[in-house]
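Can anyone check this?
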Amino acid sequence: MKKYILALLFCIANCELCTVNFSLGPALHAQCPVENTAFQGGERLEYKLYFNWKFIWKTAGSATMTTKSVTRDGKVGYQSDLITRTQKIVDKWFCMRDTLRSVYTTDIVPLHYRKGANEGGKYRLNLINYTYNGGRTHLDMSYRHGDGRVTTAQHSTTECAYDMVSMMMRARSYRSSDFAVGQRIPLQLADGDRVKQETLVYRGIKKFTTEGKEKRTYRCLVFSYLERNSKGKEKEIITFYVTDDDNHIPVRLDMNLRFGTAKAYLTRATGLRNSETSIVEK
């Protein structure tokens, strides 16, 4: 469940930043770097999480995302961190204390990923280091399971590969003019000690109105994240709404979980890079 909640939210953390080399070298293939015009260092996004039990929606927790500029080897990049926390009343059914961190270049080429998760008293740790040479993306992955076992794996591909956080930051460069409704967007996603071929589907433009005292209606691009099971059958895991402006902020996520459904709604956004031109009502 946690994986689906974290997949399309974002950032804040309290772990030590590991040393990262921003020197990618001339062999980095040209399709991976993309121009970032959507976000900047200093951005902070806050969300409320809601779970559904027996047709009743309950506030279940919160998530906070921050992005900041970092410098390594004299070069500037970004660090995006995510913290999710369930409320104490929810911890009886499912306790979630998760911290994710992704470090990537200014043109959104991932370099390092760290995901620490405490679920139901079991701690899991996922580490990924990316390197680029010979026209290929190389991933060095380590995964600490809930029972303490550690598994490692290496993966090499001629395609771009992303983790949960860098994938979403990359997706914020998408524009409605890039896609036709129903268009499928393949991606390679690293999670645990595996790299999987997954799919985003563009659903078109819809309006979404936030909750609370200060309601806002946004014009949004809508995407669905599909996951393929061992039998090759696809399941829609998340539908997410991003603002149809230059910020491309995720304002709503609908998640299908094993025991029900969950939603995440944006409650506050500060440090944005661009004007919020997608707001159609305040």
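Reply from J.R.: I decoded it. Residues 2-281 form one domain.
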